[in-house]
Amino acid sequence: MKESSPVDVLLTYPTDGPRVFSPMMPIGLVSIGTVLKKAGYKVKIIDFNFYSNDFRKELRTLQPRIIGIGGTTPTRSGSFLTARLAKEILPHVPVVYGGVNATFTSADTLNAVAEIDYVLKGEGESSFGEFCDVITGKSDRAIGQIPGLCRRTPQGVSENKAERIRDLSVIPVADRDLLGDNYKLRMEFIGGEGDFLMTSRGCPAACNFCSAARMFPGGVRTRPMDSVMAEVDYLLSRKNLTGLKLFDSTFTAKKEHVHDFCN
Question: Would the pLDDT of 235 be above 70?
Answer without folding.
Answer: yes
